[in-house]
Design goal:
It contains two helices and no strands. The protein has 82 residues and is mainly α. The relative contact order is 0.06.
């Protein structure tokens, strides 16, 4: 392999690690507090707020299923009905 190709691979690897790091940081900063809130705000829990728990739980579940919905939509053009 030429040095140019190796440099491109190293650069792309660095960019990928940067994106993963930023996504992990943002996901942790948003996800941990939301998870703690959802775990402690159900009916009968420490900070009971069932309406807020349901609303935030709905948003979290909708967001979690977004990648699967995109995958299903992307696969549909590659299938054909027999």
């Amino acid at each position: 392999m030429s040095p140019d190709i190796l440099w491109l691979i190293a650069k792309a690897t660095g960019q990928t690690l940067h994106m993963v790091g930023v996504a992990a940081l943002v996901g942790s900063l948003l996800g941990v507090p939301l998870g703690v809130f959802l775990a402690t705000s159900a009916k009968g829990e420490l900070f009971a707020a069932p309406m807020a728990n349901r609303l935030i739980g709905l948003v979290v579940n909708a967001t979690r299923s977004t990648p699967f919905i995109i995958l299903v939509v992307a696969i549909i053009p590659f299938t054909r009905l027999v």
